[in-house]
Structures are given as structure tokens and as C-alpha cells.
Amino acid sequence: MEVIVAKKCGFCPGVTNAISIAEKLLADKGNIYSLGPIIHNPDVVESFANKGLKTVNSIDEIEEGSTVLIRSHGAAPAQIEQLKAKGAKIVDATCVLVKRLQQKAIDLEKEGYEVVVIGDKNHPEVRGVVGCVKNVAVIASKDDLCNLPKDKKLGIVCQTTKGPELFGEVVGEIARGGFKELKVINTLCKETVHRQESAVELCKNVDIMFVLGGLQSANTHRLVELCKKHNNQTFHLQNWKEFDKSILFGKAVAGVTAGASTPQWVINEFVENLKAFKG
Ligand code: SF4
Q1: Domain ranges in the chain?
Q2: Which atom of ligand 1 is nearest to the CA of 98?
Q3: Dihedral angle sign, alpha carbons of residues 230, 234, 239, 245
Q4: Which helix (H) or strand (E) is 263 found in, with range?
Q5: CB-CB contact of 263 with 41 (8 Å)
Q6: 13-95 placed in CATH 3.40.50.11270
């Protein structure tokens, strides 16, 4: 089968940095904690668990005085304070773009704006940003706009992994809402945008499109959504093992892309197997 891989896909610089910090820490210290999965990819989480990285969802599960890795999604200031109170040695692998988003939200609040985050309220990156400011609204789509206070000045930022379409659509709708003053900061991650553009370009020219990535990965879900708009033969998979090969019958050219938390070895294994597939 002919296989074409998207020009931009797989690990982004923020994830590469967090992975390399975790590897060095594990080599130096043995056992460490990660507050939440280091990335949204179960294969990677499992391989790190085997090397001594304990993933916990609550600070209560962390032993006093331990080393704790803050993943690329970042953490809220209150969580950092709680960790310090437990005597934790904190190693911060928050992506620089997530740090920038947090700082922009803090600055907007200092300037007197009510902060609006366009994103998913349960995503860890968004929870971290929400924890940086006092008065904040999270807007997942234009349907949530009725929650915004009409009499306030709004300072708008966006979850880094959202697409420019959603950001533009929500900001456009807010602009129509008669708010007193708006300040919009573009906090989208260019790496994500480039992955989305190259996935869309590729999916239009193939018989079947595969998006590889964890089921919890927001940026992978976004790639799937975008590709489905242009190619209804788009499938979200975590790896080669898990899919029904009968969907390949009658297809000559396959496209492959992958979320920012999908390791290169998963992509390579998938592509090699797909190339060798004989229906
Ligand atoms: S997707 Fe972008 S913002 Fe998120 S970790 Fe990667 S580089 Fe950073």
C-alpha cells in the first residue's frame, strides 16, 4: 500500500522537552512522581512507569520530600504551593508556550480585564491557567457566551492546542456581543497549527487517513475532527495492534498523521506495517 506521512506530525518541542527531562531525572534519581500523565499517550506512560515514574492524579498520593515533575501542560500556582508545603523537589517541564499563556492571563487580570479562556474547562492546561487568576470564564464554544458578564472589559486567551478557526469564531461572536472593551491575545501554539494544516492538506489526497494518538489527547482529537471534515475515511487509532485491517480493503493510498504526544516509534511501526500490508 502507498503511505504518505504528514509533513508535520508527532512530538512537539514541549513534549520532547518534558520527555527528555523525565529521562534524565529517572536516570539520576530512580523513582519520581508526575502530577497527571506525562503526556496523553498510554504507551509512553507505561514505558516510563516501568522506569520508575509514578503517575498520580492527586497531590495527596505524593510522599513527602519526593521529586515531582510538572508536565508540559503545567500546573496551577495553588498546586505548586501544596507541593512545596510537602517538601517536594519540583522539576518544572511546563512548555514555554503554556507558561506564556499563564503569564498573559495574569497580566490581563492585573490590567483590569475579566479573563476569558477559550478551551475545555477540564483540560489540565486550562485548569492550570484558571488557577492563575481570580475572575475567569472558560468558553468551549460560542454556545457558552451567555455566561460572560456584559458590563466588564474582557481579556481573551485560548488553550494552546485549539485551532485558529474556533479561536476566530468565538472571538468574532464575542465582538458582536456589545462588550465594553476587548483585548485578545493570540496564545495558539504554531506547532499545533502547522500539524493541523499539514493533516488537512494530506487527507484531501488519500483514500484513507489515520490519525495516531492517545484517546485523551486533545490535539489528536482536533486533528481527527479536521480530517473528518475533508475525508470521511478518517480513523483515530493509538497504534497498529488495535485496528480492524478489513477497512484497508479497496484502498490504494493511505495518509498518516499523529498528535503532538505520539512517539516516533509508534508512527514508524504503523507506517512500516501499512506499507507491507497486502489486502
Ligand atoms: S503542543 Fe505546543 S503548547 Fe503544547 S506542549 Fe507542544 S509545543 Fe507546547
Answers
A1: 2-10+191-276, 13-95, 97-188
A2: 3
A3: negative
A4: none
A5: yes
A6: yes
Domain 97-188 architecture: 3-Layer(aba) Sandwich (3.40)
Are domains 2-10+191-276 and 97-188 of this chain identical in fold? yes
Q: Which of 92, 91, 98 is nearest to 12 (CA)?
A: 98
Domain 2-10+191-276 sits in CATH 3.30.470.20: no
Calpha distance 133→130 (Å, rounded): 6
- Any atom of ligand 1 within 6 Å of the Cβ of 125: no
Name the pTM for this structure: 0.90
Q: For residue 161, which atom of ligand 1 is closest to its CA?
A: 1
* Pocket flag, ligand 1, residue 13 (CB < 6 Å): yes
What is the mean pLDDT, run by run of 10 residues, along the chain of 279 residues?
A: 96 95 91 92 89 95 96 96 96 97 98 96 96 95 85 94 93 90 97 95 98 90 95 94 88 96 93 89
Q: Does the beta carbon of 68 lie inside 6 Å of ligand 1?
A: no
